Amino acid sequence: MKTAALFGLTGQGIETAGEILSNIMRSQGYTHRAWRDFSTIIRGGHTAFEIYISEKGEEAPPPRIETIDIAVVWDDEGAKRYLPRMADSAMLFGSMNTTMVPEENRGETPKLGFNVWSLGVIAGYLGIPFPLLEDSINQHFAGELNQNLAHRGYILGQFKNKGNTVTNKLSDLVTISGNDALSLGAIAGDVRHYFGYPITPASEILENLTKWLPPLGGKTVQVEDEMAAIYAAAGASYAGERTFVASSGPGIALMTEALSYLGATEIPLVIIDNQRGGPSTGMPTKTEQSDLQHLRYAGHGEFARIILTPTDVLDCIAVIQEALNLADYYQCPVILALDLDLAVRRVSLPWVAVEQAIRSVTVDRGPTLLESLPIEDYARFHSVDGAPPVRTVPGIKGGGYVASGDEHDEKGFMEPDFKVVRETHHLRRLHKADQIEYQRPLSIIGNMDAPVAIIGTGSMSELIENLVKRQPEQYKGVLLRQLHPVPVESIVNALSEAKTVIVAEYNATGQIRSMIESALVDRQIHSLLRYNGEHYTLEEFQDSVTSILSAQKELTRG
C-alpha cells in the first residue's frame, strides 16, 4: 500500500488536487480510499487530503492508516501534523514557508499554485507517467504556468522515487462517496423528485440529484429552509411520489415538528441525517455519531419510526432502497443515520460491485394503491388483523381521505371519540413497527468463536473489519444496520460466543450502547468513544481496543 497526504490553506485547491490524484489512480485501476479534513471557515483554516492506495489488486479499498509515505505541506502547521506519521522524514516536502521540512525538499511555489506543484511532487514519487498527470491537470487548470509548476514538482518527487511505477491494471473502477451512493440508490429506488436545503455534509446529495434527475424526467427544488424541504417531501409522498430528505443535526432539529406530522398521518418518508459534531453549529466539518438519541425520540407525542445505519459506502446504495421499501410498507418515518466521514468519504470500487448493489433491492410499494378499480367505503387508517392499512394516492376513485395532523378516526375524520381511538387506532399506529421484517439487521465479520466482539456502524465499520482481518482469532465484528427497533435476537445470536463486547462509536455518551442495552445483558461490556471530530486511523483504533482489554485484564487480576 502507498499513502500520500496534501496539506494547505482552505481556498488553495487542496481538495481539487486530491480529486485529480484520485481520478488518476482510479483510471489506472487502483482501488483506494480518500480522507478529507477541512476547516469550518471559508478562508484561513487548513485543509488536508490523504489517499491510501492498494497495490495488490484488492477489490476492497483500504482503511485510513497511520503511516504516510509522502506528504506535501504549505506551512509548519502541516509539518507538525505529518512529521510524527512519516515512514521516512526525508519524504516530507513543502513550500519555502516551512522551516521544518528538509531544505532540499522545499520548492518555490505561489500560494495559488501550491496544489498543482504538490500534485507534481506526489505524482513523481508514485511513478505516475507525466503525460497522464499533464492531461489530468489540463482538465482543471489550463495554462503554461500550471504545467511548469507541476513539472517542477514532478522532478523533485521523481528524484525520491524508489522504483515506484503506476501502470494500467485494466480494472473498471468507479470513485464514489457515501453521498454519491445514497443518490444512486435513491434513483434505483424510484426517486424522481427531491426537495433540499444545503447543509454540510449533506449538500452533495442536492448537488448530485440536481445533475442526475433531469435526464430521467425528474427534478430537484432548492427550498428556503429545512422545514419547507420536509413538508414539500411529505406532500410529494402523500401524492404517491417516492422521495426523501437529507440534512445534518441542525436541519434535522428544524424538521422535528414534521416528523410528528408524518407519524400522525402515516405518510411514508425517508429522512437522512449526515451527523456532524455538535451541539448547535458545533463542528460542522467533523465526524460524529451523536444525534442518535435525538433521532430515536425526536418529535412531540409518541409514534412509530425505524432507524437504519449503512456500514460502508457500497452499503449506502442498498440501505436507502431498503429504507424506501420499509417506509412504504410500515407507513412511518424511516431515518438513515450516517456520519460525516462516511458521507464524504471517497472510495474507488469495481463498477460491477456498484452495479450489483444498485440491482440488489426490488422496488416494493407495500400496501399502496397507485391504480385501481373504484373502491367503496374506504377507510384510510383501517387495519385488518394488524396488517398495515391500504394507502391510496390522489386520483383513486373512492379513495380520498383527510391527512390531518389532528387525532382522527379510521376514515381520517377529526374530533372522534378519543377514548375509543386512543385505545385502538393510536396504539395500532404506535406499535406497528415494534418488530419489522428486515433481512439485514447486521453483518458478522470474522470467526463466530472469537472471544472479543466489537460492535459499531457507519465509519467505524471499516476499522472493525480491518482489525478483524489482522487478528481473526481474537476479534469478530458486529456491524449494525438496524438501530431501532433493536434487533435483540440477531444481536444476542451474534454475540453468543463472545466473552467481551466493545461498542465503538463517535460520541461522548455511548449512545449506540444505550440504544441496544437490552441485547447486551450478561456480558462484559466496554465503550470505545471518540468525540474530537477526527476519524481513527486503523493503528489508533487497534491501540484503543488493546488498552481496553489490558485494563480489563488488570482489573481481573486485581
Commentary on this structure:
- There is one protein chain.
- This protein has 558 residues and is of the alpha/beta class.
- It folds into three domains: 2-158, 3-Layer(aba) Sandwich (Pyruvate-ferredoxin Oxidoreductase, domain 3); 175-359, Rossmann fold, CATH 3.40.50.970; 442-557, Rossmann fold.
- The protein has an eight-stranded mixed beta sheet with strand order 6-5-4-1-3-2-15-7, with helices on both faces. Strands 10, 11, 12, 13, 14 and 21 form a six-stranded mixed beta sheet that branches. A five-stranded mixed beta sheet has the order 18-20-19-22-23, sandwiched between helices.
- α1 packs parallel to α3 (114-126) and α6 (178-188) crosses α12.
- The model has no long low-confidence stretch (mean pLDDT 95).
Cα-based radius of gyration, to the nearest Å = 26 Å
Low-pLDDT parts are: none
- Helical amount among residues, as a percent range? 25-40%
CATH-derived topology of the largest domain: Rossmann fold
Biggest sheet, spatial arrangement of strands: 6-5-4-1-3-2-15-7
Query: Going by CATH, what is the homologous superfamily of the largest domain?
Result: Thiamin diphosphate (ThDP)-binding fold, Pyr/PP domains
Instruction: Characterize the biggest β-sheet.
Output: 8 strands, mixed
What is the number of domains? 3
CATH architecture of the largest domain: 3-Layer(aba) Sandwich
Instruction: Please provide the count of β strands.
Output: 23
Structural class: alpha/beta
Terminal-residue CA separation = 42 Å
